[in-house]
Design goal:
Blueprint (H helix, E strand, L loop, with lengths): L8 E3 L15 H21 L7 H4 L8 H25 L4 E5 L6 H6 L7 E6 L1 H13 L1 H7 L6 E3 L4 E2 L3 E5 L5 H10 L8 E6 L7 H14 L3 E8 L5 H12 L13 H9 L5 E6 H7 L2 H8 L7 H9 L1 E8 L14 H7 L4
Parallel strand pairs: 1-4, 2-3, 2-7, 3-6, 7-8
Antiparallel strand pairs: 4-5, 5-6, 8-10, 9-10
Helix pairs in contact: 1-3, 3-11, 3-13, 5-6
Protein backbone atom coordinates (compact mmCIF):
# COMPACT_ATOMS: atom_id res chain seq x y z
CA UNK A 1 0.00 0.00 0.00
CA UNK A 2 1.42 3.40 -0.98
CA UNK A 3 2.08 5.96 1.79
CA UNK A 4 -0.91 8.20 2.49
CA UNK A 5 -0.84 11.72 1.09
CA UNK A 6 -4.12 13.15 2.40
CA UNK A 7 -3.71 16.15 4.69
CA UNK A 8 -3.87 15.46 8.41
CA UNK A 9 -2.75 11.85 8.03
CA UNK A 10 0.58 10.52 9.24
CA UNK A 11 2.05 7.28 7.97
CA UNK A 12 3.25 4.70 10.48
CA UNK A 13 4.63 2.13 8.11
CA UNK A 14 5.82 -0.29 10.71
CA UNK A 15 3.30 0.13 13.54
CA UNK A 16 0.78 -2.66 13.51
CA UNK A 17 2.46 -4.61 10.74
CA UNK A 18 1.52 -8.15 11.73
CA UNK A 19 4.29 -10.02 9.96
CA UNK A 20 4.31 -12.53 12.80
CA UNK A 21 0.72 -13.60 12.08
CA UNK A 22 0.57 -17.29 11.25
CA UNK A 23 -2.46 -18.49 9.33
CA UNK A 24 -4.35 -21.59 10.31
CA UNK A 25 -5.40 -23.79 7.37
CA UNK A 26 -8.97 -22.43 7.25
CA UNK A 27 -8.18 -18.76 7.92
CA UNK A 28 -8.43 -17.75 4.26
CA UNK A 29 -11.89 -19.30 4.00
CA UNK A 30 -12.98 -17.53 7.19
CA UNK A 31 -11.67 -14.23 5.84
CA UNK A 32 -13.73 -14.79 2.68
CA UNK A 33 -16.92 -14.92 4.76
CA UNK A 34 -16.47 -11.16 5.33
CA UNK A 35 -16.89 -10.56 1.61
CA UNK A 36 -20.01 -12.71 1.52
CA UNK A 37 -21.60 -10.95 4.51
CA UNK A 38 -20.69 -7.51 3.16
CA UNK A 39 -22.17 -8.33 -0.26
CA UNK A 40 -25.40 -9.43 1.41
CA UNK A 41 -25.63 -6.28 3.53
CA UNK A 42 -24.97 -4.12 0.47
CA UNK A 43 -27.79 -5.83 -1.43
CA UNK A 44 -30.28 -5.41 1.41
CA UNK A 45 -29.36 -1.75 1.83
CA UNK A 46 -29.81 -1.08 -1.89
CA UNK A 47 -33.29 -2.59 -1.70
CA UNK A 48 -34.24 -0.36 1.23
CA UNK A 49 -34.19 -2.78 4.18
CA UNK A 50 -32.21 -0.30 6.26
CA UNK A 51 -30.20 2.88 5.70
CA UNK A 52 -26.42 2.70 5.40
CA UNK A 53 -24.69 5.48 3.48
CA UNK A 54 -21.25 3.87 3.92
CA UNK A 55 -21.41 0.19 2.94
CA UNK A 56 -21.16 1.18 -0.74
CA UNK A 57 -17.62 2.46 -0.20
CA UNK A 58 -16.48 -0.99 0.86
CA UNK A 59 -18.60 -3.19 -1.42
CA UNK A 60 -19.22 -2.63 -5.13
CA UNK A 61 -21.05 -5.86 -5.84
CA UNK A 62 -24.50 -5.37 -7.36
CA UNK A 63 -25.61 -9.01 -7.27
CA UNK A 64 -29.14 -9.47 -5.95
CA UNK A 65 -29.61 -11.95 -3.13
CA UNK A 66 -32.64 -14.10 -2.37
CA UNK A 67 -35.41 -12.41 -0.31
CA UNK A 68 -34.81 -14.87 2.56
CA UNK A 69 -31.18 -13.74 2.77
CA UNK A 70 -32.11 -10.06 2.71
CA UNK A 71 -34.71 -10.49 5.43
CA UNK A 72 -32.29 -12.55 7.50
CA UNK A 73 -29.63 -9.84 7.35
CA UNK A 74 -32.23 -7.24 8.25
CA UNK A 75 -33.04 -9.16 11.45
CA UNK A 76 -29.32 -9.60 12.16
CA UNK A 77 -28.47 -5.92 11.80
CA UNK A 78 -31.54 -4.70 13.69
CA UNK A 79 -31.03 -7.21 16.50
CA UNK A 80 -27.47 -6.06 17.13
CA UNK A 81 -28.48 -2.40 16.81
CA UNK A 82 -31.24 -2.79 19.42
CA UNK A 83 -28.71 -4.04 21.95
CA UNK A 84 -26.17 -1.34 21.10
CA UNK A 85 -28.81 1.39 21.39
CA UNK A 86 -29.90 0.22 24.84
CA UNK A 87 -26.27 0.10 25.98
CA UNK A 88 -25.59 3.62 24.67
CA UNK A 89 -28.68 4.99 26.40
CA UNK A 90 -27.66 3.42 29.72
CA UNK A 91 -24.13 4.82 29.51
CA UNK A 92 -25.04 8.17 27.90
CA UNK A 93 -22.09 7.61 25.57
CA UNK A 94 -19.55 7.32 28.39
CA UNK A 95 -18.43 3.97 27.03
CA UNK A 96 -16.37 2.03 24.51
CA UNK A 97 -17.37 -0.23 21.63
CA UNK A 98 -15.04 -3.06 20.60
CA UNK A 99 -16.01 -4.84 17.38
CA UNK A 100 -14.34 -8.27 17.14
CA UNK A 101 -13.94 -9.64 13.62
CA UNK A 102 -15.31 -6.33 12.36
CA UNK A 103 -14.95 -7.00 8.64
CA UNK A 104 -16.37 -4.09 6.63
CA UNK A 105 -18.97 -3.25 9.26
CA UNK A 106 -19.99 0.43 9.13
CA UNK A 107 -21.48 0.91 12.61
CA UNK A 108 -18.88 3.52 13.61
CA UNK A 109 -19.71 5.70 10.62
CA UNK A 110 -23.45 5.28 11.06
CA UNK A 111 -23.24 6.24 14.73
CA UNK A 112 -21.39 9.42 13.76
CA UNK A 113 -24.53 10.49 11.91
CA UNK A 114 -26.65 10.16 15.05
CA UNK A 115 -26.78 11.81 18.45
CA UNK A 116 -24.94 8.82 19.91
CA UNK A 117 -21.25 9.42 20.55
CA UNK A 118 -18.82 7.13 22.37
CA UNK A 119 -15.46 7.70 24.03
CA UNK A 120 -13.67 5.10 21.95
CA UNK A 121 -14.56 2.76 19.07
CA UNK A 122 -12.15 -0.12 18.40
CA UNK A 123 -12.30 -2.60 15.51
CA UNK A 124 -10.22 -5.77 15.25
CA UNK A 125 -9.91 -8.34 12.48
CA UNK A 126 -7.34 -10.33 10.51
CA UNK A 127 -4.64 -8.00 9.10
CA UNK A 128 -5.58 -8.88 5.52
CA UNK A 129 -9.11 -7.62 6.23
CA UNK A 130 -8.09 -4.45 8.08
CA UNK A 131 -5.56 -3.62 5.34
CA UNK A 132 -8.39 -3.48 2.80
CA UNK A 133 -10.57 -1.46 5.15
CA UNK A 134 -7.73 0.98 5.89
CA UNK A 135 -7.08 1.42 2.18
CA UNK A 136 -10.75 2.15 1.47
CA UNK A 137 -11.00 4.66 4.31
CA UNK A 138 -7.81 6.40 3.21
CA UNK A 139 -9.09 6.78 -0.36
CA UNK A 140 -12.50 8.25 0.55
CA UNK A 141 -12.75 11.70 2.09
CA UNK A 142 -16.31 11.05 3.24
CA UNK A 143 -15.02 8.25 5.49
CA UNK A 144 -11.93 10.14 6.66
CA UNK A 145 -14.09 13.13 7.56
CA UNK A 146 -15.99 10.97 10.04
CA UNK A 147 -12.75 9.92 11.75
CA UNK A 148 -10.72 13.11 11.56
CA UNK A 149 -11.42 16.21 13.64
CA UNK A 150 -9.79 19.63 13.74
CA UNK A 151 -7.38 18.79 16.53
CA UNK A 152 -6.80 15.09 15.98
CA UNK A 153 -4.41 13.32 13.65
CA UNK A 154 -5.20 10.12 11.76
CA UNK A 155 -2.25 7.69 11.76
CA UNK A 156 -2.14 4.94 9.17
CA UNK A 157 -0.04 1.84 8.66
CA UNK A 158 -0.73 -0.88 6.08
CA UNK A 159 -3.02 -2.74 8.50
CA UNK A 160 -3.88 -0.24 11.26
CA UNK A 161 -5.60 3.13 11.51
CA UNK A 162 -5.73 5.36 14.57
CA UNK A 163 -7.96 8.42 14.88
CA UNK A 164 -8.91 10.52 17.91
CA UNK A 165 -11.66 8.09 18.96
CA UNK A 166 -11.57 5.36 16.28
CA UNK A 167 -9.02 2.57 15.99
CA UNK A 168 -8.92 -0.17 13.33
CA UNK A 169 -6.24 -2.82 13.84
CA UNK A 170 -5.13 -6.12 12.39
CA UNK A 171 -4.79 -8.88 14.96
CA UNK A 172 -5.30 -12.60 15.53
CA UNK A 173 -7.92 -12.90 18.27
CA UNK A 174 -6.36 -16.21 19.29
CA UNK A 175 -3.18 -14.41 20.36
CA UNK A 176 -4.09 -12.64 23.60
CA UNK A 177 -0.71 -10.94 24.02
CA UNK A 178 -1.22 -9.41 20.58
CA UNK A 179 -4.80 -8.42 21.42
CA UNK A 180 -3.63 -6.78 24.66
CA UNK A 181 -0.91 -4.89 22.81
CA UNK A 182 -3.33 -3.63 20.17
CA UNK A 183 -5.90 -2.49 22.74
CA UNK A 184 -3.18 -0.54 24.54
CA UNK A 185 -2.27 1.12 21.23
CA UNK A 186 -5.95 2.08 20.96
CA UNK A 187 -5.82 3.64 24.44
CA UNK A 188 -8.47 1.30 25.77
CA UNK A 189 -9.84 2.09 29.22
CA UNK A 190 -10.49 -1.14 31.12
CA UNK A 191 -12.58 0.74 33.72
CA UNK A 192 -14.99 2.21 31.16
CA UNK A 193 -18.26 0.38 30.35
CA UNK A 194 -17.58 -1.57 27.15
CA UNK A 195 -19.77 -3.40 24.66
CA UNK A 196 -18.19 -6.15 22.56
CA UNK A 197 -19.75 -7.08 19.23
CA UNK A 198 -19.14 -10.31 17.31
CA UNK A 199 -21.09 -11.51 14.27
CA UNK A 200 -20.23 -15.06 13.23
CA UNK A 201 -16.75 -14.81 14.73
CA UNK A 202 -16.49 -17.03 17.80
CA UNK A 203 -17.74 -20.07 15.86
CA UNK A 204 -14.50 -20.02 13.84
CA UNK A 205 -12.26 -19.98 16.92
CA UNK A 206 -11.17 -23.22 18.60
CA UNK A 207 -13.07 -23.82 21.85
CA UNK A 208 -10.07 -23.40 24.16
CA UNK A 209 -8.88 -20.25 22.40
CA UNK A 210 -12.40 -18.82 22.57
CA UNK A 211 -12.64 -19.65 26.27
CA UNK A 212 -9.27 -17.98 26.84
CA UNK A 213 -10.43 -14.84 25.02
CA UNK A 214 -13.71 -14.58 26.95
CA UNK A 215 -11.97 -15.27 30.28
CA UNK A 216 -9.35 -12.65 29.49
CA UNK A 217 -12.04 -10.05 28.76
CA UNK A 218 -13.89 -10.98 31.97
CA UNK A 219 -10.70 -10.50 33.97
CA UNK A 220 -9.61 -7.23 32.34
CA UNK A 221 -12.86 -5.26 32.06
CA UNK A 222 -14.88 -4.08 35.05
CA UNK A 223 -18.26 -3.62 33.36
CA UNK A 224 -19.03 -5.05 29.94
CA UNK A 225 -21.66 -6.45 27.60
CA UNK A 226 -21.00 -8.97 24.84
CA UNK A 227 -23.42 -9.17 21.90
CA UNK A 228 -22.83 -12.32 19.87
CA UNK A 229 -24.66 -13.26 16.66
CA UNK A 230 -24.06 -16.70 15.17
CA UNK A 231 -25.37 -20.16 14.40
CA UNK A 232 -27.46 -22.28 16.77
CA UNK A 233 -29.26 -25.66 16.71
CA UNK A 234 -26.44 -27.09 14.61
CA UNK A 235 -27.20 -30.67 15.67
CA UNK A 236 -30.37 -31.15 13.60
CA UNK A 237 -30.70 -31.99 9.90
CA UNK A 238 -30.92 -28.40 8.67
CA UNK A 239 -27.93 -27.51 10.85
CA UNK A 240 -25.92 -30.36 9.35
CA UNK A 241 -26.63 -29.04 5.84
CA UNK A 242 -25.41 -25.58 6.92
CA UNK A 243 -22.27 -27.09 8.42
CA UNK A 244 -21.53 -29.16 5.35
CA UNK A 245 -21.93 -26.12 3.11
CA UNK A 246 -19.47 -24.12 5.20
CA UNK A 247 -17.01 -27.01 5.45
CA UNK A 248 -17.24 -27.42 1.69
CA UNK A 249 -15.90 -23.86 1.44
CA UNK A 250 -13.00 -24.67 3.77
CA UNK A 251 -14.47 -23.32 7.03
CA UNK A 252 -13.97 -25.82 9.85
CA UNK A 253 -16.27 -24.11 12.43
CA UNK A 254 -13.85 -24.97 15.20
CA UNK A 255 -16.21 -23.58 17.87
CA UNK A 256 -19.39 -25.30 16.72
CA UNK A 257 -19.82 -27.19 20.02
CA UNK A 258 -21.09 -23.94 21.55
CA UNK A 259 -23.68 -23.64 18.76
CA UNK A 260 -25.74 -26.73 19.53
CA UNK A 261 -28.46 -24.91 21.46
CA UNK A 262 -29.33 -21.63 23.15
CA UNK A 263 -28.16 -23.23 26.38
CA UNK A 264 -24.69 -24.04 25.03
CA UNK A 265 -24.51 -20.48 23.71
CA UNK A 266 -25.26 -19.09 27.17
CA UNK A 267 -22.91 -21.53 28.90
CA UNK A 268 -20.00 -20.49 26.69
CA UNK A 269 -20.04 -17.17 28.57
CA UNK A 270 -21.08 -18.40 32.00
CA UNK A 271 -18.28 -20.99 31.96
CA UNK A 272 -15.77 -18.26 31.06
CA UNK A 273 -16.35 -16.02 34.07
CA UNK A 274 -19.20 -13.83 32.80
CA UNK A 275 -21.92 -12.87 35.28
CA UNK A 276 -24.79 -14.07 33.10
CA UNK A 277 -26.13 -14.46 29.57
CA UNK A 278 -29.39 -14.57 27.65
CA UNK A 279 -29.99 -15.99 24.18
CA UNK A 280 -32.77 -15.82 21.61
CA UNK A 281 -33.13 -17.44 18.22
CA UNK A 282 -33.80 -15.09 15.33
CA UNK A 283 -37.49 -15.99 15.30
CA UNK A 284 -37.71 -14.21 18.65
CA UNK A 285 -35.45 -11.37 17.56
CA UNK A 286 -37.51 -10.76 14.43
CA UNK A 287 -40.71 -10.68 16.49
CA UNK A 288 -39.12 -8.09 18.79
CA UNK A 289 -38.80 -5.62 15.90
CA UNK A 290 -41.75 -3.22 15.71
CA UNK A 291 -44.71 -4.46 13.69
CA UNK A 292 -44.62 -1.33 11.53
CA UNK A 293 -40.98 -1.89 10.62
CA UNK A 294 -41.56 -5.57 9.85
CA UNK A 295 -44.54 -4.71 7.65
CA UNK A 296 -42.46 -2.11 5.82
CA UNK A 297 -39.66 -4.49 4.87
CA UNK A 298 -42.04 -7.37 4.11
CA UNK A 299 -43.51 -5.21 1.35
CA UNK A 300 -40.12 -4.77 -0.30
CA UNK A 301 -40.00 -8.26 -1.83
CA UNK A 302 -42.29 -11.22 -2.29
CA UNK A 303 -41.21 -14.19 -0.21
CA UNK A 304 -41.69 -17.50 -1.99
CA UNK A 305 -39.85 -19.65 0.56
CA UNK A 306 -41.34 -18.65 3.91
CA UNK A 307 -40.52 -22.04 5.36
CA UNK A 308 -36.86 -21.59 4.42
CA UNK A 309 -36.70 -18.22 6.18
CA UNK A 310 -38.25 -19.76 9.28
CA UNK A 311 -35.61 -22.50 9.29
CA UNK A 312 -32.82 -19.96 8.85
CA UNK A 313 -34.19 -17.89 11.73
CA UNK A 314 -34.30 -21.01 13.91
CA UNK A 315 -30.61 -21.68 13.20
CA UNK A 316 -29.17 -18.30 14.07
CA UNK A 317 -29.28 -16.55 17.43
CA UNK A 318 -28.41 -13.44 19.38
CA UNK A 319 -26.66 -13.77 22.73
CA UNK A 320 -26.20 -10.99 25.28
CA UNK A 321 -23.73 -11.65 28.12
CA UNK A 322 -22.72 -9.24 30.86
CA UNK A 323 -20.08 -8.57 33.51
CA UNK A 324 -21.31 -7.06 36.76
CA UNK A 325 -24.88 -6.00 37.45
CA UNK A 326 -25.16 -2.68 35.62
CA UNK A 327 -26.11 -4.17 32.25
CA UNK A 328 -27.93 -7.36 33.13
CA UNK A 329 -31.23 -5.82 32.01
CA UNK A 330 -30.15 -5.24 28.39
CA UNK A 331 -32.71 -7.36 26.63
CA UNK A 332 -34.92 -7.60 23.61
CA UNK A 333 -38.66 -7.25 24.04
CA UNK A 334 -39.59 -10.45 22.32
CA UNK A 335 -42.69 -12.47 21.60
CA UNK A 336 -41.28 -16.01 21.35
CA UNK A 337 -44.18 -17.46 19.41
CA UNK A 338 -43.26 -19.30 16.22
CA UNK A 339 -46.89 -19.32 15.07
CA UNK A 340 -46.99 -15.51 14.93
CA UNK A 341 -43.94 -15.42 12.67
CA UNK A 342 -45.38 -18.11 10.45
CA UNK A 343 -48.58 -16.11 10.17
CA UNK A 344 -46.68 -12.98 9.17
CA UNK A 345 -44.86 -15.02 6.53
CA UNK A 346 -48.18 -16.26 5.15
CA UNK A 347 -47.36 -19.87 5.98
CA UNK A 348 -50.38 -22.09 6.50
Amino acid sequence: MEPPTTGGIASAATAGNSSTHKFHPCDEAVIATNDDASDCKRCAVRLGYWKDDYIGYFVRNQERKAPEINRGYFARVKGVEMCVEKFLKKTSGNCQIINLGCGFDTLYFRLRDTAHQVKNFIELDFPTVTARKCYTIKRNKALLARIHDEDGEVRLSPTDLHGPSYHLMGVDLRNLDEVDNKLQQAEVDYTLPTIFLAECVLVYIEAQNCRNLLQWIAQKFQAAVFVNYEQVNMNDRFGEVMLNNLRGRGCSLAGVESCLSLETQRNRFKDSGWSGARAWDMVQVYESISAAERQRIERLEMLDEGELLLQLFQHYCLVVAWLGLAFQDIDITCVPVVEELMSSLNID
